Amino acid sequence: MKYIIYSIAAALAAILAGCTETTKIGPEQPENPAYVEVSSDKLIFDSDGGIASVAVATNAGQWDYVSTGDWFAVTRRDDNTLAVEASINAGPETLTGNIVVSGEKDGTQVTATVTLVQRADRSVNLSAEGTSNCYIARTGKAYKFDATVKGNGKGDGRSEYIAAYGVGISGIAAAELLWEARNDGDKTMSREIIDGAPVYKNGYVAFSTGRSQGNAVIAVKDINGNILWSWHIWVCDDEITSHDHVNPAEQVVAQIMDRNLGALNNEPMDIDNRGMFYQWGRKDPFTPSRSPYHEDANSGNIPAYNQTNYEVGNGSGSWLLHEKALPLTTPPGNIPHSILNPMAYLQPYYSDNYNWYCASKEENIAHSDLWGAEKTIFDPCPVGYKVPGRDIWGIPSGNTSLRNGGPAEDYDENGVSEKWDWNKAEKCGRCWKHTGDYYPMVGNLYYTSINQTTHNYTSGQAFYWTCAPTPATTSADSYRQDFNENWALYQTGAHVYSAQIRCVKE
């Protein structure tokens, strides 16, 4: 039996051995050709930028990449991916670039290209038709403006500022919101005028507006945090228009704005009709009182009617309303100081010199032309507008005050008088008889030690600047329209005080 088993085993072994020997092995399979592949051959970034990943697949022993374009950054990760990051494109042009991935196997070089595109900023370019110190915006929108030019980039009067500092802005490290405010000082709503932080990129400041109307100032700073320049952002959803202005000689002398600079409307008794205050010759605004209108003001300086609005919203600045100007007597005087400190109201250094700019009574210095017949880099009005000229509310002769409005008893039942250019005072303002335009009595901003108030005469008096200097040779005065419920005067005003502006077309 054992013999039979051994015989069968031997036979099976022989059969198996024969099968092994006759099995054929096919020809050796060739290796795969060299390749490098990317997960996407085109990346498109929105203007806001972002981060995207590109996976790299290759049979090369090693691979590398080269990028073309300075608006994005590439980082190689350990898992064979490239992280591509693009920052905000605040410029007007679409950006392009590429990444070329390469590898080599057995002497064969292979590549794959990723094309990169970043869309142009879809925000509205506020400076497309010219630069200025003030830009008008609406709520819930994205905007940008050219941050490389001071004001309109033109003249500077007799200040000699441009000779020393130029009209270009360089060395910008960042943009920053200094303040945002509503006229009522509502902290909650003030924080919603500018949405988020402004961004500086490629010569532009980009920002978005929130759901609240109001005013704000955005600055650009250098690497040390010094302010290089600042801009007023006037957020108003109401359409701002202009129309013929007729002077006392019944001449159309300007196309005048339908409201005060910075106002959200021109409705009598509405706190949003006030607009901003300006020291003569300065580009940066100051906020009006946050108090409601009071028809019983009677030209008095009642503290309860003059509450100061210190609101800054989400801004980084602080209001400095009792600051002294530096004792500088030669141009450009305090202009650099005022640019570094746009939230500082500059009181005169000497008590007998009512000028924030230079503590000098020399004619060519006192008459600085910081705001002039031709719009300057310090003019605070928006693109296409400027501070009004000499003959707008009167035709003055020398330094004489022109009375152009009177008390209630001088007017008929319609509030009109043949004698006066200003109609009867009512609803905390007056109307210009020749056009019917309403001008609110917003008062002014100026700290007085007697009354211990910062805002004065809110609801009871009005002050409106022109750009025109008076003929006085030793004092820094310009023509200004003032009125209350008893009188209206077209007269001289010292530059250190504040007043409103009703812009006119250039």
SSE order and pairing:
Blueprint: H1 2-22, E1 36-38, E2 42-45, E3 50-58, E4 63-68, E5 72-76, E6 81-86, E7 95-105, E8 108-118, E9 124-125, E10 134-137, E11 142-146, H2 161-165, E12 174-181, H3 187-190, E13 194-201, E14 204-209, E15 214-221, E16 227-235, E17 242-246, E18 252-257, E19 278-279, E20 320-324, H4 335-340, E21 344-347, H5 363-366, E22 385-386, E23 402-405, E24 429-432, E25 437-440, E26 444-448, E27 453-456, E28 462-469, E29 477-483, E30 488-494, E31 498-499, E32 504-505
- Count of beta strands: 32
Please estimate the helix content.
Answer: under 10%
Number of helices: 5
Strand content: 25-35%
Spans with pLDDT under 50 lasting ≥5 residues?
1-26
Q: Quick recap of the structure?
A:
The chain has 506 residues and is mainly beta. The chain has 5 helices and 32 strands. It is 8% helix and 35% strand.
